[in-house]
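Continuing the batch. This is chain 6 of the set; chains 1 through 5 are on the previous pages. Same settings as before, nothing changed between runs. Recording input and output for traceability.
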Amino acid sequence: MNNSIRLCLVLHNHQPIGNFDDVFEHAYRDSYRPFLDVFEGYEHLQISLHTSGPLIEWLNDRHPEYLDRLARLVDAGRVEIVGGAFYEPILTMIPSRDRVGQITSFTDWLESRLGGKVRGAWVPERVWEQSLTSDLSEAGIQYTVLDDFHFRSAGLTNDQLHGYYVTEDDGRILSIFPGSERLRYLIPFRSPEENIDYLREVANQHPNSVIVFGDDGEKFGTWPETNKHCYHDGWLRRFFDALTANRQWLKTTTLSEAVDNVLPVGKIYLPDASYREMTEWALPVNRQLAYDKVVHDLQEDPRWEQIKPFVRGGFWRNFRVKYPEANEMYSRMMMVSRRVAAAEDQGVGGEDLYWARRELYRAQCNCSYWHGAFGGIYLPHLRNAVYNHLIAADNLLDRACDRGDSVLAIQDEDFDFDGRREVRLANERLVALLAPACGGHLYELDVRTICHNLLATLTRRPEAYHRKVVVGPTGDGDDCASIHDRVVFKQAGLERELQYDLYPRKSMVDHFFDNDATLEAVSRNEAMERGDFAAGVYDAKLRRSADRVQAVMTRQGNAWGIPLTITKGVKLGAGSSKLEIAYLIEGLPPDAELHLAIEFNFAGLPWKADDRYFAQGADRRLGDLGSKLDLRDADRLDLVDQWLGISAQLTTNRPTGFWTFPVATVSQSESGIELVHQSVAVLPHWLVRGDSEGRWSVTLQLDLNTAAAESRQSHPAAVAATV
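Output for chain 6:
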């Protein structure tokens, strides 16, 4: 065959910050090591390899011999190391200063450990906005890989996608390769022969061109059934044999070799985009379902191939609208980023600032900020990890700026960028964030001594794939297919677990229920809401004194049509690990009882574990944190997590009933659809009757005791273990 092409195989290996150690080990055993075992034997093949910062730090610690092997392949010219942002953030989500900082620090690390020169960068999830061009260029990056979907969205046709293009922003240029969506679905799911046939077709039609496969390395062993398919059944070896047998016309090469030896096809400006599936996931659920229907209907239309390039989904940033919890993490991250930048501007330096910046970068890891075929935001351990690193960064910044034990503050500001003001109360042990305009909720509670946000909760909401839960799985799970094509249930009966919340799963959520409402009805969201306080707008006033701060929130609303006023205050003292929460209800009728419940949710305290349990004092255990409890005439309930080293004690100054129940979501990940525990709901509730002036009050105290955790800590700042 006379015509020839260059094939760039670009692998992206990644594990997110906060993932379990055994998941890293499993991926190493099933994907990364066996791929290298096979690849090393084919001395004529070359690849470009991106390994994310969280993963490469883990490999350097646990399997340095793997990185030594990579370094030898780099030195031999067989592997080109592709850089990028150190901790795999969505680049459009973080400030420009952090983009450049993440990329340059990762380049330095990679060149020092693996050798070679880093010239290219992986753009996480291929989320692109044109302004990234100048930041990538400033950080020393010459080229990157996006999807051909980006280029088709700019108006190019398939015949124009066999090479690379140059783009520009603010006078800086960058080369961009279009990664082939066709190859993403062929490799490794179709036979090597079918892959070669497609590449031969490209070579015949576009001689001397460049075609790029750029996708997850986990496809070669970690995705369901792919380890057996790629290694035990020999797909990868047969694929490499086929590439070798056809190397007279099919040259496997690196991105850098292609840039150095092939001229760009032309110049291009790309629209805001990501890979095709991501744009679909970013849509609101009802529009996602409508999009799916339109595509399904049009696929049978003979004009579909002409229409398809003009069909686009949503915009990545709208994940922060689709999932308000993602916006909460984002806005908290921005608070820390601004603090780091301000400290630098003020001339603060030293090791504490260095590690604070590193903790910020770790918290920017993208995986928990969105959701599609992967678990993402639905995985509590990923959300917990984001907050862990953000709180650690705050602790280090306080120390770097010599704030020490003098932290006591209250402020109101639009922290979450929604046009409404939130309230922040802080001391050296706790940070509490309140949303007066959304039910007066307590929506973040950072326990600084253990770097844990007890309110990293998740609201249950519809997902487009929930319709599949009712229909059932599509196969027995033994077939090897792309995760985009599989529907596998990890548990039976998930259709019975589908529930959707009518209000955010936060704390200090104010409910009025029927007097005979039951635990079962409330836990199933079947109890009728009789008031307008659960998500209503409260006014807020701030109070300060030398040794304490307080936010007082008031709303005039109604329950059962009865005009009521609720005033609730949250008080935090200097050096205290206790929140004092006081409620006053006014306008109560003298001749009737109203059923009031105040909902709290606690996150990061798993269920179904013997060392995580409810208690009343040290001597009375009441069951694990997945228990449904219906307590009467109590004034105390403890939530204990011995592994985390925290005890959350909720007390009231008058006898109360306590309802408790677990909150779980039906959500999908790459391995299937499953039930995931998200939070523990605790609702103290009363039948309230007004006094002679129509008033009723109660005081609650939330005491967060971390003595057990602190006794195990070796580092006084309670920051992440990497410090």
